[in-house]
Write a structure and sequence with these properties.
Elements (H helix, E strand, L loop, with lengths): L5 E3 L10 E8 L16 H7 L11 E7 L11 E6 L3 H18 L5 H15 L7 H18 L6 H9 L8 E7 L3 E8 L4 H17 L3 E2 L11 E2 L3 E8 L2 E2 L9 E9 L17 E9 L18
Parallel strand pairs: 1-3
Antiparallel strand pairs: 2-3, 2-9, 4-5, 6-12, 7-8, 9-10, 11-12
Length: 307
């Protein structure tokens, strides 16, 4: 079925200065052109600009769907932080390895002397701490534990140090940034057609969402028989007030429709009009953004609370 350009329920909800929820449907554009002949990026461009664009250029608009404001409007922003440890032995080992690799990279005549110098730095770097018998004993037990594990043991070096010395290596525990999270939005809409025109609009709205979120076949016969399957269409949800974006509510980035549920018995018991249209329906849509929200994205927002 060909997609209709603009669908709206209720009738004329977008007129005047009403608040409403609009969802644009677009043909999916891959995030970058790596591996393609057209506009192919070099490795330096990929590392300089990141692996994918934060916002895709949605060129081909397939449809616009206008709905009343959802029954639930909320957002949740989060990033991933997690605890991490690095004790003194590990830190010293990292520094020693860095010195060794630096020595190898340099165009030195005597590589052996440079490597020996890096090892000396590791030994001498302990300084006065290495002269403390308690420190030496703790280090020895930690190294014994790691050595046993090489031969298939399952010994926690920290536990071994604690059992024998009553202390543990300082883990230097810190909370470190680990990454970003893609936001997800769940919206619920109550659909109660008042006449045949609205019944038809609701039918097409539900059908459009279903069709647009489905994967596409590359075979002419369809049905997923091709070698590849193409990505579904993507969506641009926007809270609107009259002809412009809502002046207060949050913005949503380009998204995939990852879930849809329609209850055709919204009254609790089956009831339809004479043409078979249910009297009341509940439609739930679950969108997930295609890219994370970054600090720089707020520069493109001049109204509302941002993302």
């Amino acid at each position: 079925m060909a997609l209709s350009k603009t669908l709206q329920y209720p009738t004329n909800i977008a007129s005047g200065n009403n608040d409403y929820f609009m969802v644009g449907v677009f043909n999916y554009e891959p995030p970058n052109s790596v591996g393609q002949n057209s506009g192919r990026k070099t490795l330096s461009q990929i590392f300089a600009g990141g692996g994918s664009k934060g916002t895709r250029n949605l060129k081909k608009s397939l449809s616009n769907i206008i709905l009343p404001m959802p029954d639930n409007i909320s957002d949740s922003n989060a990033v991933t932080w997690d605890t991490d440890t690095l004790n003194s032995l590990q830190l010293a080992g990292v520094q020693a390895l860095d010195d060794i690799l630096t020595s190898v990279r340099k165009d030195n005549v005597d590589k052996k002397q440079q490597l020996a110098g890096a090892v000396d730095k590791f030994v001498n770097g302990a300084g006065a701490a290495a002269l403390d018998p308690a420190v030496r004993e703790a280090v020895k037990k930690a190294l014994i534990g790691e050595a046993v594990n090489i031969f298939g043991g399952n010994i926690d070096s920290q536990s071994l140090v604690s059992r024998t010395t009553g202390q543990v290596l300082n883990p230097n525990l810190e909370l470190l940034f680990k990454g970003v999270i893609l936001r997800e939005f769940n919206y619920s809409f109550t659909l109660t057609p008042r006449d045949a025109s609205e019944s038809n609009e609701i039918l097409q709205i539900i059908s459009t969402f279903k069709q647009s979120m489905a994967a596409k076949s590359t075979a002419s016969s369809g049905g997923g028989r091709g070698i590849f399957i193409k990505a579904p269409d993507v969506f641009q949800p926007v809270f609107m007030q009259g002809p412009r974006a809502h002046p207060f509510l949050y913005s949503i980035k380009q998204s995939a429709l990852v879930g849809m549920n329609v209850n055709y018995v919204g009254t609790g018991s089956y009831a339809t009009y004479s043409d078979g249209t249910p009297v009341k329906m509940q439609m739930q849509l679950r969108f997930r953004e295609l890219s994370p929200v970054y600090n720089e994205d707020y520069r493109s927002i001049d109204s509302g609370v941002g993302f």
